[in-house]
Amino acid sequence: MSGGNFELVAIGNPLLDMQIRNGEAVLEKYNLKANDAILAEPQHLSIYQHIVDNYEVTYVAGGAAQNAARCAQYALPPNSTAYLGCVGSDDLANQLRAANDKEGLKSVYQVDSSTPTGSCAVVLTGHDRSLCTNLGAAEKFDKSHLETAEAQQVIKKAKFFYMGGFFLTHGLESAKVLAHEAKARDVPFSMNLSAPFIPQFFKAQVDEILPFSDLVFGNESEAEAFAESHNLGTKDLATIAQAIADFESATPRAEKRTVVITHGAEPTIIAVKGNKETQIHQTVKINPSDIVDTNGAGDAFAGGVMAALIMGKALDQAIDVGHKLGRMCIGQVGPILKFPKEQVM
């Protein structure tokens, strides 16, 4: 895969998801919430062995930005996407590489041989999923990796950058390198709020990278967390989306920032910097019996939107593509898309 355009370059935390069903007892044991995402603290670290010992575990290549990039690649021409992150020198990393290779996503990994590849316990209860992440090698990413020949090859070709908000827990300086690259070449820089704890506990990092972002993704709980941490005094999603859109800008592209907030089966909200009114985009109703796994649905949505924008689609068309990929994702285990592309684009 030395050739290719690598139009989309994503950066984030590569993780191997360890997924279980009917995990109500695990939520109770580890004091986890049914529809949430957290970083593992010392009291959570035994969860990984606990689920291996007591449940049937499905292993799925994960990491939010990596999921989104694979889903974007699904809709794009071959060799259009590349992904930056740090892994260990172990079998988990090999599984991630194999999954990316299968989907045509180029893995541009930094390798930390002293730290295991990150993992995420995905505890499914009904249609909810709770994520408990041990970052492992993912948080060892160093911005020096961006200067390597392999990384420079894809960064300098990129026409679209994407960062998962989870990366801000440790990688702000690396994210800023890509944000400044995007600014210098007048190409999009996109970010995802990723989880409520990101705008809640990493507000300073969000506020530093948001001015460079001209496309921002989030869901209703992440938007509410942003509103709370920024003292907006509202839970109205349209008002919050507009506030994020109107946040200060550090690039000409961010002067036209678009914010896309999903809300499960409810309409998706779109806000554009400077506009007086937000827009809504209806979703297609899904039979609850057809929902297999909601993990990664937001990543699939973001990947679909970005792929469509890269292919020159209008925003409303791109959101339609995002919705289609999200629907595909929740109909099977993990963000793996198996249907003909003709059904999407």
From TrEMBL:
Its EC number is 2.7.1.20. InterPro entries: Adenokinase (IPR001805), Carboh/pur_kinase_PfkB_CS (IPR002173), PfkB_dom (IPR011611), Ribokinase-like (IPR029056). Its cofactor is Mg(2+). Pathway: Purine metabolism; AMP biosynthesis via salvage pathway; AMP from adenosine: step 1/1. GO terms for molecular function: adenosine kinase activity; ATP binding. It catalyses: adenosine + ATP = AMP + ADP + H(+). Residues 29-340 form the Carbohydrate kinase PfkB domain. One of its GO terms (cellular component) is nucleus. It holds the Pfam family PfkB. The active site is at residue 299. Keywords: ATP-binding, Kinase, Magnesium, Nucleotide-binding, Purine salvage, Transferase. It is an enzyme of class 2 (transferase). Signal peptide: none annotated. GO terms for biological process: AMP salvage; purine nucleobase metabolic process; purine ribonucleoside salvage. Belongs to the carbohydrate kinase PfkB family. ATP dependent phosphorylation of adenosine and other related nucleoside analogs to monophosphate derivatives. This is Adenosine kinase.
